[in-house]
Amino acid sequence: MITVETDATFPKLILDRARFQPDGIAIREKDLGIWQSWSWSQAKDEIRYLACGLASEGLSQGMNLAIVGDNRPRLYWAMAAAQSLGAVPVPIYQDAIADEVAYILDNAEIGFAIVENQEQVDKLLEITSQVKTLNKIYYDDPRGLKNYREDQLSSYDKLRQVGIEYNQRNPTFFLESVKSGKSSTTSIILYTSGTTGKPKGVCLSHQAWIRAAKVDVEFDELKSSDSILSYLPMAWVGDHLFSFAQSIVAGFTVNCPESSDTVMADLREIGPTYYFAPPRVFEDLLTRVMIRMEDASQLKKKLFSWGLKVAKKSGVDIMDKKPVSLKNKILYETANIMVFRPLLNVLGLSRVRVAYTAGAAIGPDLFEFYRSIGVNLKQLYGQTETAAHVCRQSDGDVRNDTVGKPMTGVEIKVGGDGEILVKSESMLNEYYKLPNETQSSLTSEGFFKTGDAGFIDSQGHLKIIDRSKDIGRLTDGAMFSPQFLENKLKFFSYIKEAVCFGDKREKVCAFINIDLEAVGNWAEKQGLAYAGYIELTGKREVYSLIGDCVAKVNKELAQDSELANSQISRFLILHKELDADDNELTRTKKVRRKFVEDKYSPLVQAMFKGLDMCEITTSVKFEDGRTGEISANVFIQNTARNAFESTS
Fold first, then answer.
1. Fewest CB within 10 angstroms: 12, 312, 360, 643, which?
2. Residue 524: domain span
3. Which spans in 482-539 are helix H?
């Protein structure tokens, strides 16, 4: 790890990295099936040309640059190029719809944007009448854009060439500009997911990120020889911490997949040593494993089942280097050779030395599954406003019910209402253009209000219960934590999403989204014909399948005196998948619980009234931007009896 100066900025660190590690691979990208690599020296030159090009075009200190697209080297370089000029990059979720993009462009007063391809160009051109400040749009991938003649549109390649010429005329400009950068200035604006309202622009400084990254790198002993797959949205705080801040501080290699469709194949090819994914990704990986096992021979099924039993018995203890009998060690190593290693090779996780999950609570069963088969999976805790840097689990001190201990330099308190309060040097400067929001997010002592409820246990670990606003009580006074129940349900490969209701009610009811791939595969084996998602959700056999999953969750809850009253009384299978384009999920795939409850209020009311069926018409937004409606008769099932029996 290079020495971090007192007034360090990311462009300064990149120059140092190019000086001391010139031939080390900074970033790779798979293009047309071939991995292309750039060294730190080459990356520095690309950033220099781009910065000079943007300066020639008029981008200067204090201005904001929008970045929209999948993870691409040129888009990461655009971040550093803007920072080199004292400007601020503003990454935007690549799957955000036009209205969401327009809000951010307008709010951040964007004049310049660098985007990936035609899809993003079309999105921005559609909203130019709404965003008066947007003057320049530069695209990386020229495919499909040959006949575009808009004045504000130009290619990345042309911008780069302008930069080369500008650099030749002004050979000292770039270095002088980088040298003048201050660590206390805003390095990036990341917009929150907007779970409860409009997204807010979180302004974080260079020093906030660099201090967080430095502590993290030392904590996990990350080295320049490590590598990571960069596939999560660039606009998400987790990707910026891992794929930008930590990679520059530690000097490890960032790998960009060819597309979102090739992530799994690219993961297997790269075999990263460092891996990060939100719980949903780990859930999807497990679902794929279970689907593959459905198609496996009886011998492989038995071997897999035996391996999981061995892993459950001693895998976690072996991972944590706790005492294990010689017999169990031999059994585990045998299972490792015959089951776990081949499985991890298929998943692309065979070389992973350190893995993290965050962004939402992960189910304890799911968490222990990965650790038991040899993945050093740990949890971290943080928010966009804290640079995702609050708590981490250390090797040998990992538990499924906590998020670890506070990191060096982080102070945590629990407020009187149970809310987690955080203070550190890696916190937001402000919410962009929202001084009142900034002030209200902090206590008088300067602690950030996380909005999460939890407590610090006797061993110093932080335990998160749920979002403060989501924790409720049943009418009998029992605590109701919807997220805990939902994670229990989502452990099953057949369940993709769940939303539980019960606050101020006598019982708990749940919406279920089935996983189309997993349930569809199961249905084919049962000889069940179906035309699509809606028809599949209405099958009595599918209700029986999901009912078995709910019953298993209830059985576990019944054994816990504090949670026994939270058993799920009734459930329905929602006729459509919850979708970010329909505002039901955030761009980080978190459920907008209140929105879902209001949108589907007839279904919620029907569940609690004891009805067995409810007809509903729902508005949806299609991928091409059109809107429409879908109608369905949604059945509601008690956990003790089948709804079809009473409606037949």
1. 312
2. 472-647
3. 482-490, 516-526, 533-537
The residues, ordered by sequence, that sit 6+ positions from 20 with a Cβ below 8 Å of its Cβ are 2
Q: Would you say 407 and 423 are in contact if contact means Cβ atoms under 8 Å apart?
A: no
Q: What are phi and psi of 613, to 5 degrees?
A: -160, 150
The encoded tokens of residue 384 equal 């966009």
Structure tokens at 467: 């979002």
Residue 387 region by backbone torsions, left for phi larger than 0, else alpha for psi between -120 and 50, else beta? left
Q: Tell me which of 435, 467, 499 is where a domain ends.
A: 467
461 domain-assigned = yes
Q: 24 burial class (0-12, 13-18, 19+ CB within 10 angstroms)?
A: middle
CB-based contact 254:76 (threshold 8 Å)? yes
On whether both 322 and 437 belong to a single domain, the answer is: yes
Q: What is the pLDDT, as a whole number, of residue 75?
A: 98
Say what the pLDDT of residue 4 is: 62
CB count within 10 Å of CB 220 equals 19
Helix axes of 40-57 and 156-169: crossing angle, nearest 10 degrees? 90
Answer yes or no: do 403 and 489 share one domain: no
CB distance 84 to 166 below 8 Å: no
Residue 195 is predicted with a pLDDT of 60
Q: How confident is the model at residue 407 (pLDDT cuts 50, 70, 90)?
A: very high
* pTM, 2 dp: 0.85
Residue 172 CB: number of other CB atoms within 10 A? 9
How far apart, in whole angstroms, are the C-alpha atoms of residue 497 and residue 246? 31
Q: In what order do the strands lie in the sheet with 153-155?
A: 88-92, 64-68, 112-115, 136-139, 153-155
Integer angstrom CA distances of residue 579 from 30, 195, 244, 284, 484: 29, 13, 28, 16, 21
From the centroid of its chain, how far is CA 592? 15
Q: Do 483 and 456 belong to one domain? A: no
- Report the side by side order of strands in the sheet with 25-31: 34-39, 25-31, 253-256, 227-229, 274-276, 354-357, 377-381, 391-392, 405-406
The answer to whether position 455 is within a domain reads yes
Contacts of 72 (CB under 8 A, 6+ apart): 29, 116, 140, 256
CA distances from 404 to 230, 460, 510 (A): 24, 8, 30
pLDDT of 2 reads: 64
How far is Cα 406 from Cα 391, in angstroms, rounded to an integer? 4
The strand order across the sheet containing 448-456 reads 411-414, 419-423, 448-456, 462-467
> What pLDDT, on the 0 to 100 scale, is given for residue 647?
43
- Rounded-to-10 torsion of CA 392, 395, 400, 404: -30
Half-sphere exposure of 366 (CA within 13 A, CB side): 26
**Sign for the pseudo-dihedral over CA of 421, 460, 401, 236:** positive
Would you call 622 helix, strand, or coil by DSSP?
coil
Nearest to 290 by CA among 276, 303, 301: 301
